[in-house]
């Protein structure tokens, strides 16, 4: 029995030391379903972080490109996602930065680039954390499934 309890040690620490082998089949199924939901939430968070990081990287690249553009260059300016008007570039001294929840702050180009760099780094760190949490939940899922399969096998034998 000690060999069977060892793989669930990580999950025991998280659940307050409850051995998976002491749970009923129904309790194990509830635990499995709970872990599946948590995994789905973590996967959704991971995808959202990747999308947000990509948007920031695109914004940073657009700002970099705009600073290199000479004054008076003709371009189409987006008014909505499907509506553009003609315009010309002017000397870029500052820009508006979306700092979240609908708030915009005027910053110099250098401050805006530094802000986006910090935000990209923050999201990269959060992505690593979410990925690690998902890996741990995946291990917990495997442990719960292993004990569930052992209980199924024991029920068939008995």
From TrEMBL:
CDD domains: Prefoldin_5 (cd23157)
Protein name: Prefoldin subunit 5
Keywords per UniProt: Coiled coil
Family: Belongs to the prefoldin subunit alpha family.
Example GO BP: RNA polymerase I assembly
PANTHER family in alphabetical order: PREFOLDIN SUBUNIT 5
Gene Ontology annotations for the cellular component aspect, listed alphabetically: cytoplasm; prefoldin complex
SUPFAM superfamilies on file: Prefoldin
